[in-house]
Specification:
mainly alpha
């Protein structure tokens, strides 16, 4: 079964911004990375899936996220609670 590729129109004002991202050499590459970043930031896809959609190695995608100060590690409320317990225990020993 052949995979269809939908055609979309990108407004001119988006093109100017996306073209300046530096995420690739072609507009297609820049759009892929920009969309993958947005989907990841919205938690619509996992980190690994976002890297796949961007057609970037995971390490490169993490570098892009880091350069934009977008957290890529999952740090939940449970992690915060565990850290607070560990800090409390540490200071109780002193």
């Amino acid at each position: 079964m052949e995979k269809s590729t939908p055609e979309i129109r990108v407004p001119e004002e988006f093109l100017h911004v996306i073209d300046k991202t530096g995420y690739g050499t072609s507009l297609d590459q820049k759009l892929r990375v920009s969309l993958a970043i947005g989907l990841f930031a919205e938690r619509a896809v996992t980190l690994e899936r976002a890297a796949e959609l961007a057609e970037k190695p995971l390490s490169d995608f993490i570098k892009i996220l880091s350069s934009k100060k977008i957290p890529w590690m999952e740090y939940t409320e449970d992690h915060v609670e565990d850290d607070n317990i560990a800090i409390d225990k540490y200071f109780q020993r002193e």
